[in-house]
Amino acid sequence: MRAVDIIRTKRDGSELDADEIASFVRGATDGTGWTDYQLAALLMAIVCRGMTANETAALTRQMADSGKRLDLSDIAGPKVDKHSTGGVGDKTSLILGPLAAACGVIVPMMSGRGLGHTGGTLDKLESIPGFRVNLSEYEFHTALTKVGLALIGQTKDIAPADKKLYALRDVTATVESIPLITASILSKKLAEGISGLVMDVKCGAGAFMKTFQEAKQLAQSLASVGIANGLRVATFVTAMDVPLGRAVGNSLEIIESIETLKGNGPKDLTELSVKLAARMVQLAGLASTIKEAEKRVQNALDTGAGLEVFAQCIAHQGGDPRIIDDYALLPQVSGTMTIVAPRRGFVEMTAGAVGIASMVLGGGRERAEDVIDPSVGIVCRAKAGDRVDGGQVIYEVHYRAMSKLQAALPLLEESFAIADAPPAELPLVLEEST
Predict the structure, then answer these.
(1) pLDDT tens digit string along 342-353?
(2) Cα separation, 87 vs 430, whole angstroms
(3) Which residue among 90, 123, 162, 268 is the active-site one?
(4) Is 169 a catalytic residue?
(5) Per-residue pLDDT tens digits for 9-64
(6) Which of 169, 279, 316, 398 is an active site residue?
(7) Nearest by Cα to 164 from 151, 148, 183, 150
(8) Would residue 162 show up in a list of annotated catalytic residues for this protein?
(9) Does 184 qualify as catalytic in the annotation?
């Protein structure tokens, strides 16, 4: 079975069989029979021709089997994870993970780093002094046993084919493919040893999926392929036209996450975190209805049980749990400044520009090798739809380098406008699987 024949089959629009897909994944894992340019050629053919549901399910399974699948069967309790496709200010994992764990769900959460205008959960966690995201398998297993929650990065043994293929996709304009996105996400989730997954597919100006139709198509693909591979899957399509919550930037988002677990979070962030955590509880079989699940999660929030789990998680993974009560222990900037409303009216805001401004400040990375400054970022003192007076603060900008501040300011100035009438209020959850 030659690589060139497999490439030709897909180029001509025919369906690949399981053996052909297995050959492709072996080539990505250890180079057997495939060169990098042949792997890239098939990726492009997939982008142009697409894949059937059966092909995508087979690709996902083969990528998951390209490395080690974790066995968590000896840990008592249901194992459920949540994954987001990424957005500006999206820190729900830091909130819903502890809340779900406080309700009895075992949450093995394998997260990623930020790239471009979207933040990464690992980068946020690493702004906590001492916090370790690179745990050994034994340490990961121990954290889940003792805390019920572990927040880690992908190990070299988990879905190695995905690492290779993603690196090629990044430099060959083949990222935007729903089958490839589906296989990349779910192969890592299958290897985690979970039985259930809640997917939050972001949609809008601050998301990778700009339109509702694209986001819905991805959500349906994730659900069908996950189910075909033995996962219980619940999907959400959620709005990402404006930042979620108020904080954008790594240590700033840690603070907002803690404040949310203390019951002081922004309404949109709290609402979405509770809703997603409740679906995790329901998927875990710990509540018979979503209403019952939401009640349990809300109780974990109100009693501080979720906050206690987060503190235990921080301590168990080497971080300083004193940050829960002393935010001065987090990385600090050298200066702050404000951007104010030029006149009275209603705020309109675009998430993508705010995310790019945070990246320019040093809070994100344009290239994978860029180094992040965990202290910088933006606090949205006014939210989209708020009525403001002239001179009222819209953004509080946390910066370290004046040159980066000067580069970010035009982006922030362009990211909002003051209108005479309030913008149409859009729902936070655009669609939810039943």
Answers:
(1) 999 999 999 999
(2) 15
(3) 162
(4) yes
(5) 999 999 999 999 999 999 999 999 999 999 999 999 999 999 999 999 999 999 99
(6) 169
(7) 183
(8) yes
(9) yes
